[in-house]
Amino acid sequence: MTTPLIEVSGIGKSYGSVIALREVSTVVNAGEVTCVLGDNGAGKSTLIKILAGVHQHDTGEFLVDGEPVRFDSPRAALDRGIATVYQDLAVVPLMSVWRNFFLGSEPTIGFGPLRMLDRRTGRETTKRALSEMGIDLRDVEQPVGTLSGGERQCVAIARAVHFGAKVLILDEPTAALGVKQAGVVLKYVAQARDRGLGVVLITHNPHHAYPVADRFLLLKRGAPLGHHEKSEIDIGELTRQMAGGAELEALEHELHGGETT
């Protein structure tokens, strides 16, 4: 049996008296997408911050390649191959696509105080990496702020893949996008999966999650609401659970004055 890239078991996190996450378990395998679903306040952000090394868990076990870990920084997570693309993308809008692609890891030529930015290598590498992901930009010198939201998400995904990520965590990548752009981003999520990466997709939209995910973790108020393999649940039931189907049924019954049919 293949060891999961990431496995969390009974993970919990508290901030003072506030319990943000409790008893959450899931796995992330190579070449698969684990989708974490939940409304605002469900605990999705807390979970990914633990996986990304922003916060440490208080309870439970966090394994990477079968080894217990407790990251003390995002750099520590990145060093273990866990790359996170946040919703705001952390890009510099007025800087070119290729400069954003290499931000913090710029290629240089020369030695010591004579080192200079290697623009040619930067442009060529960026164009090639984007092309390998099926992203065709007219000019990698154009400011990244001129790209659509979907294109910017795709550049961020290609960057993580290029720099050797084994696990790609995507924080609500389709939240602010239209139907067509969301579809483009989901296509690149599938491409990252097909290249052997383990993907954690955070979303509140089951219709975006279902086409690409292999398993679903549903969270509500920091606790697991359900954990399903794709073969165990259809889109209708996933949507019902996500929407709080039992609560909605109770509300409808109450609004109809307790009538039965």
TrEMBL record:
Ranges where the ABC transporter domain occurs: 6-246
Record's keyword terms, sorted: ATP-binding, Nucleotide-binding
Source species, domain of life: Bacteria
Keyword Cytoplasm: no
GO molecular function, one term: ATP binding
Keyword match Cell inner membrane: no
A UniProt-annotated Pfam family: ABC_tran
InterPro entries for this protein: AAA+_ATPase, ABC_carbohydrate_import_ATPase, ABC_transporter-like_ATP-bd, ABC_transporter-like_CS, P-loop_NTPase
Name the UniProt record assigns to this protein: Sugar ABC transporter ATP-binding protein
